[in-house]
Write a structure and sequence with these properties.
Number of strands: 5
Low-confidence stretches: 110-131, 135-139
Helix content: 25-40%
CATH topology of the largest domain: Ubiquitin-like (UB roll)
Radius of gyration: 28 Å
Shape: globular
Oligomer: single chain
CATH architecture of the largest domain: Roll
Largest sheet: 5 strands, mixed
CATH class of the largest domain: Alpha Beta
Number of helices: 5
Structural class: alpha+beta
Distance between the termini: 77 Å
Length: 159
């Protein structure tokens, strides 16, 4: 089994993932000229992140990859410990693979770092806005319609 990793100026290297993930990771960094302290990740041709760096407890890395698969080398950049962006280490990546650029941008957690509001949160925020916006105006409307009903006035629309 082997995999191909693309990086740099359209360089390609073959790797054998039938080894410890730690050994494979160190080998990728060394052969692709990435600093050993850098965090890296791999992106497949379908735009799926392999989360290779999170499977270090596995016995071998074969289960993470597809035989003869092609992967793009990414550098993980973290800002303030929260936002994570992925930068492809293949030069001209946007020109060579425009269909993957949007997927790579979606993977960046800078968009995902803000917690998504649940429907419950949306309703509670809306209720707070309504109550703050004019409790008096809504109660005045209620009082007005109650008075109209009590006074016997009926209003109807004629089309």
């Amino acid at each position: 089994m082997f995999i191909t990793i693309k990086f740099g100026d359209d360089e390609k290297l073959l790797f054998n993932p039938d080894c410890s993930p730690k050994i494979l990771l160190d080998n990728i960094k060394r052969r692709c000229r990435v600093p050993l302290q850098a965090d890296i990740e791999l992106l497949d041709e379908d735009g799926e992140l392999k989360n290779f760096s999170q499977c270090m407890h596995e016995r071998d890395a074969c289960g993470v990859f597809t035989n003869r698969g092609v992967y793009y080398l990414l550098k993980i950049e973290r800002k303030d410990g929260k936002a994570t962006t992925y930068k492809c280490l293949l030069n001209n990546f946007a020109e060579l693979h425009p269909h993957l650029v949007a997927k790579l941008e979606d993977l960046s957690s800078s968009k995902q770092s803000e917690p998504r509001p649940t429907s419950r949160d949306k309703w509670s925020k809306m209720a707070r806005k309504v109550s703050r916006a004019g409790t008096t105006s809504s109660t005045n409307k209620t009082k007005k319609t109650t008075r109209e009903r009590d006074s016997g006035k009926t209003t109807s629309r004629v089309k």
